[in-house]
Amino acid sequence: MAAPKKGRRPTGAQGRPGRALAIILIAMVALTAGMFISKQTTPRLGIDLAGGTSITLKAKSEPGKENAINETNMNTAVGIIDRRVNGLGVSEAEVQTQGRDHIIVNIPKGTNEQQAREQVGTTAQLYFRPVIAFADGTPAAPEGTQSPSPSPSASGSGAPKAEDGKKASPSATPSSSATSQGRALSEALKAPAATATPSPSASESKKADDTKAPSPSPSAPATGDAAAADLQAKFAALDCTDEKQRAAIKGAKPTDPTLACGQRGGAWGKWVLGPAAVEGKDVKSAKGVIDPQSGQWIVTMDFNDRGSDAFAKVTGELAAKQMPQNQFAIVLDGDVVSDPSVSQAIMGGNAQISGGFTQQSAQDLGNMLSYGALPLSFSEDSVTTVTAALGGEQLRAGLIAGAIGLLLVVIYLLVYYRGLAFVAILSLLVSAILTYTIMALLGKGIGFALNLPAVCGAIVAIGITADSFIVYFERIRDEIREGRTLRPAVERAWPRARRTILVSDFVSFLAAAVLFIVTVGKVQGFAFTLGLTTLLDVVVVFLFTKPVMTLLARTKFFASGHPWSGLDPKRLGAKPPLRRSRRTGSAPAPVEAKEA
């Protein structure tokens, strides 16, 4: 008979419970410390629990686009606004349509409310236009124009920086005089307009000559000295410090030259801009980052194929010109947000915009460029403050219901499982600590906000977690009923209980994942919390409940089957183990002969 191999651990080995308990203890301490270090000691609350701001946006009809307000464009606008708000780290924001032409945006309290409010209704119509002329934002003085500060620069990724506007300024060039500026405007307007729009027919030219009154539109589709003089006059009289005048010059077609206002270095400036060379929809992605060389905030952009070709072409043409006509203006919703100068063609489909950005302005511009322009223009119809009174009452009622349910579970465990109930209660406590700290850290990390459905998910998870303990306890009791002592019963029951727990939790997690994917809004909060607590149930059962049972099986109170331990063999109806007697001899018993 072969001897058993030395060093081989028998089936049902008890392992090292202390190591597992040490791991979960370290995890709890680390999560708690991270919660206090991040100064986020409570989970963030959603708008239904904490209150916040509700913004109502109304879609506006534009001339010639009366049919643009439709279901398709409204749904597109909802998706873009939702991505913008979430791009700012505002989680649990609700964006939905109301009626035919309204969008409701609910932003929870404690998030970037003001920043989100500035972006939700911004149309983000973006164009890259060549600069024809630049001047101070106030009406021009007779002696010429003046630049308040140097313009920023643009460069390709990895390319040398372009000119930053310090070598020459509009005030130092011959075009600063009225006559020279008019000649520059006339020459600049002729070339772009000829390529941007088809040449008019003879009848259209005749009609244009007969019309003496200037068009109220800010654009200037006509060409020649008359159009240049008209645009120059409007340019000279424009006062960008007047909000009404800034609004009046907006709305030009992308194919027409136009006037625009913007701030440079904290002061208002005004521009004459040529037809759009690149549109914002050709920007594939953009983000605000810190330039590792200068330490300043910049905006990096990646263009699609069409935008890459168009951007390379326009920057190549601008590089050969003098200030300010070697600049291109980035025009967002009719306002110039930057006007970098160019010293060489920017190839490769990516570019950097630098100069004068703060962290917020760089990230805001990158956020709007990344998520695209709204298909409609919106105005703020109303802005209201939402209180948390109703949500607070519902939360209070929900917590009371959860506390009653938890109390009933504890009473049932104490009555039916007696001493084992304390193992279940300790496991529930560990699960609660892990859930709370992780939710608090997720609020700081990814903007997770706790709403009423999420609270419901956490309450439902109490039953899922308690069910795992009951499965394990019943497996141990089954082994004791078969006549085994507690220590081998704990180890032999674990493999079967483990399979049942994993299958059950996998089904719960799969249901939560599907619910999270196919739903939107607050229901996702319920699905997320349910999935998180299901994963934590596996962690707690494997790293806490099982090791604790292994250690308790070594104590006299549980190992001896004390009546209050919940593992009393007599109370469980344990059967004595079946034993077979071993035969000592192999010879058959003698058979006595009977007399006939």
What's the short story on this structure?
With 596 residues, the chain is of the alpha+beta class. Helices cover 47% and strands 16% of the residues.
Topology:
Elements: H1 17-37, E1 44-45, H2 47-50, E2 52-60, H3 71-87, E3 94-98, E4 102-108, H4 113-120, E5 126-136, E6 153-155, H5 178-196, H6 202-210, H7 225-237, H8 243-248, E7 258-264, E8 267-273, E9 278-279, E10 283-290, E11 297-303, H9 305-318, E12 328-332, E13 335-338, E14 350-357, H10 359-371, E15 377-386, H11 389-417, H12 420-445, E16 449-450, H13 452-481, H14 486-518, H15 522-552, H16 556-559, H17 569-572
Parallel strand pairs: 1-16, 7-13
Antiparallel strand pairs: 2-4, 2-15, 3-4, 5-8, 5-9, 5-12, 6-14, 7-8, 10-11, 11-14, 12-13
Helix pairs in contact: 1-12, 1-15, 5-7, 11-12, 11-13, 12-13, 12-15, 13-14, 13-15, 14-15
Summarize the structure in words.
The structure is a single chain. This protein is an alpha+beta fold. It has helices at residues 17-37, 47-50, 71-87, 113-120, 178-196, 202-210, 225-237, 243-248, 305-318, 359-371, 389-417, 420-445, 452-481, 486-518, 522-552, 556-559, 569-572, and strands spanning 44-45, 52-60, 94-98, 102-108, 126-136, 153-155, 258-264, 267-273, 278-279, 283-290, 297-303, 328-332, 335-338, 350-357, 377-386, 449-450. The strands form 4 sheets. A 5-stranded mixed beta barrel has the order 5-8-7-13-12. Helix 12 runs antiparallel to helix 13 and helix 13 runs parallel beside helix 15. The two termini are 49 Å apart. Mean pLDDT is 74; it is low at 4-13, 143-152, 157-178, 191-223 and 578-582.
